[in-house]
């Protein structure tokens, strides 16, 4: 959960989903001295009420979808690479280590799915919004608007 952040906060619902109405609470992981200072200041100012400590197992129970996403990230990155997308550099996030915990059949499916999605994106070419020159606004695609003289128009007609 938020391994690159000074502070990470998440909903804290046992089992990953709310049951009924309650006052609720959030789980917070403080990872740096800056985060500690910010938490202390917010608590002293009355913006936060700090409860007791939580275990990694509790955090996993509160956020099961995030756990599944994190375990699948290495396989998804590999699928992107298989499609020719340059690798994403993410240091210190334990991506490979956590990826080794993923069931091999699930890892294969995640890798293949990421590859297919990337190949589809690459095959469709850049979108009109992506092709705007740096510093310019994306084109106005509202009905009735006309493109600039130097812009191609697309559509059925």
Task: Label this structure with key terms.
157 residues, mainly alpha, 2 domains, two-stranded antiparallel sheet, 41% helix, elongated
Describe the protein.
- This protein has 157 residues and is mainly alpha-helical.
- The protein contains 5 helices and 2 strands; from the N terminus they run ββααααα.
- It has a two-stranded antiparallel ribbon with strand order 1-2.
- Helix 3 crosses helix 5.
- The longest helix is centred in the C-terminal third of the chain and has 21 residues.
- The relative contact order is 0.11.
- The C terminus is likely disordered.
Binned, the helix content reads 40-55%
The pLDDT mean sits at: 81
Question: In percent, how much strand structure appears in the residues?
Answer: 5-15%
The DSSP helix count reads: 5
Order of helices and strands: EEHHHHH
Within the largest sheet, what's the order of strands?
1-2
Shape: elongated
Count the strands? 2
pLDDT < 50 stretches: 136-157
Number of domains: 2
Largest sheet: 2 strands, antiparallel
Q: What distance separates the N and C termini?
A: 49 Å
Radius of gyration over all CA atoms, rounded: 22 Å
Secondary structure class reads mainly alpha
């Amino acid at each position: 959960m938020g391994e690159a952040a000074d502070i990470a906060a998440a909903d804290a619902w046992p089992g990953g989903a709310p049951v009924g109405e309650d006052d609720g609470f959030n789980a917070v992981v403080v990872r740096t001295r800056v985060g500690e200072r910010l938490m202390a200041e917010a608590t002293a100012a009355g913006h936060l009420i700090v409860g007791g400590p939580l275990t990694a197992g509790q955090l996993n129970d509160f956020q099961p979808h995030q756990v599944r996403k994190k375990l699948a990230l290495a396989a998804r990155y590999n699928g992107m690479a298989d499609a020719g997308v340059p690798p994403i550099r993410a240091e210190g996030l334990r991506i490979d280590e956590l990826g080794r915990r993923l069931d091999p059949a699930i890892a294969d499916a995640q890798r293949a799915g990421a590859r297919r999605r990337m190949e589809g994106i690459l095959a469709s070419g850049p979108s009109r919004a992506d092709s705007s020159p740096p510093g310019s606004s994306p084109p106005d695609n509202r009905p009735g608007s006309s493109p600039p003289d130097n812009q191609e128009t697309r559509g059925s007609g």
